[in-house]
Amino acid sequence: MIKAAFVGFGEVNTPKEIIVNKCHDAAENLKKEGLDLIEVYPVTDDYEEKDIKMAVDALKGKEFDVLVVCIAGWIPTHAVVKVTEHFRHIPMVLWGLCGWVEGDRLVTTADQAGTTAIRKTFYDLGYTFKYVYDIIGLPSKTKTVYNYALAATAATKLRHARSGMAGYRDMNLYGTQVDGPSLKREIGPEIETFEMLEIEQRYQKLSDSEIQEVIDKCMSKWNFVKPANPESMRKAAGYYLAVKSICDERGYDAISLKDVDGMKKLLGFPPAPIFMLLADEAGLCTIPENDSLGNITQLMVKYLTGQCAFYLEFYEFFTDRVLAGVPDYVPAEVVDGDVTVMPAAFGELSEGILNISKVKPGKVTMCRLTYDDGMYYMHMVVGEGITPRKWEEAGWTQPAPQLPGLEILLDDVESFAQNVMCQHYIISYGDNTEAITNLCDMLGIQIIR
Fold it and tell me: Are 45 and 55 in contact (CB under 8 A)?
């Protein structure tokens, strides 16, 4: 449940039952959307300010992620600010209700007189807020309020989120690095690094029965095109348990491993099945190659949508689409059909267990957080993901596998390409631009489309 405070305002001379009824209906609609509300109304501009004191006392000491400032009629600005100033650090929704029609006439309590007096004041005071207003005869903006509350909850989660990083800067890539202090200051998450040696040490201490349990209960769900080497199965299950134990102990919500220069080069084991198990069984956001901001983008998208927020990387650009796929794995959540795997080797790398599942088609949002000259930006675009044509990446053992991926139709490939921020983009199903924009606005992240 999303925790929110709901404070309904109306002028002292407006009939009280009107303000109460309007606030009650608005609050009930928000609860139907899924908000857990602390409700305080009506708050008026009474001369002794008893209502203001009542509202502040009712909210002080309570935990909530967003404050819904519901304007049910005209209200002098000072009466609102005397409440909101106590909670200026919390994102707010300035929500103006509307009048109604009785017979042949419109009846109004001057809701938008109140909101238009307040909006600029909130801006001048430096509040983080969204302004919405209802229109007579149209559905209420309940969903818009809910979406902003959802973003506020995501922002709260990000403030204390932790991502684990085994190693750092795989393949000496530039675009996967992170500026830790600015990330903590502007967005909130902590990225903690640990050594791959710790994974190996924990792996060595595992019992055969622990490893076999993962193989029997988890990996047996996969559809193997042909049997994998028993040692590969053992390593996948064992390294999964080792990494999971670290994540559990330290409260990591996301994880990345040093892939090419780490797991593959030093331990001789491509980590695709480890990532699969971490995503599917442990529910973690996963991305390879020490992609720091990729991990953070995943957390942002997951907190907003509830989806696994998987990654794809680009292989080809066309005039109307991009070919995006992965050379290792996708989470089971996005698989169309059975999770299908096969033993395979790429170039001089050791043979591993490769995911060759089909990816669900549909409308998708692609996005990527990036950092430039002291500012964070979010590049995002909506496209239509379709099943790709037959394709392969040169270098795989023949017959080469059909890698998981989508051809994503875009309105303007050239614009996307000229703004692309990394080889990895985070994918979610549906048009999630409103939710992502709300969160970015709260955090001071500029949007690039």
Answer: no
Number of DSSP helices (H) and strands (E) in the chain, helices first: 14, 21
Residues 351 and 386: their CA atoms lie apart, in Å, by 30
Contact 23, 69 (CB under 8 A): no
Ramachandran quadrant class, 157 (left: phi over 0; alpha: psi -120 to 50; beta: rest): alpha
Closest CA relative to residue 68, chosen from 98, 32, 108, 97: 97
Integer angstrom CA distances of residue 212 from 8, 14, 239, 339: 58, 71, 12, 20
Q: Which two structure tokens, joined as six digits, stand for 329?
A: 């794995």
Where residue 130 falls (left for φ over 0; alpha for ψ -120 to 50; beta otherwise) is beta
3-state secondary structure of 366: strand
SS3 at position 443? helix
Location of structure tokens 């790398």 = 349
| Measured CA angle at 355 (ends 350, 356), to 5 deg | 115
Instruction: Give pLDDT tens digits for 115-158.
Output: 999 999 999 999 999 999 999 999 999 999 999 999 999 999 99
Q: What whole-number distance in Å separates Cα of residue 406 and Cα of residue 430?
A: 15
pLDDT band, residue 347 (cuts 50/70/90): low
Q: Enumerate long-range contacts of 78-81, CB under 8 Å, 24 or more apart.
A: 78/45, 79/9, 79/43, 79/44, 79/45, 79/49, 79/51, 79/52, 80/9, 80/114, 80/118, 81/121, 81/125
Question: Does residue 42 have a cis bond before it (omega within 30 degrees)?
Answer: yes
238 pLDDT band, cuts 50/70/90, is: very high
CA angle (200, 299, 170) in 5-degree steps: 40
Q: Which helix (H) or strand (E) holds 377?
A: strand 375-386
Beta bridge partners of 369: 378
266: left (phi over 0), alpha (psi -120 to 50) or beta: alpha
Helix (H, G, I), strand (E, B) or coil at 241: helix
Looking up tokens 């040169």, which residue turns up? 394
Tokens at 260, concatenated: 């090419």
Q: Residue by residue, what is the 3-state secondary structure of 245-299? A: HHHHHHCCCEEEECHHHHHHHHCCCCCHHHHHHHHHCCCCEEEECCCHHHHHHHH
Provide the greatest CA pair distance for the chain: 83
CB 350 within 8 A of CB 296: no
User: % helix / strand / coil in the chain, to the nearest 5?
Assistant: 40, 25, 35
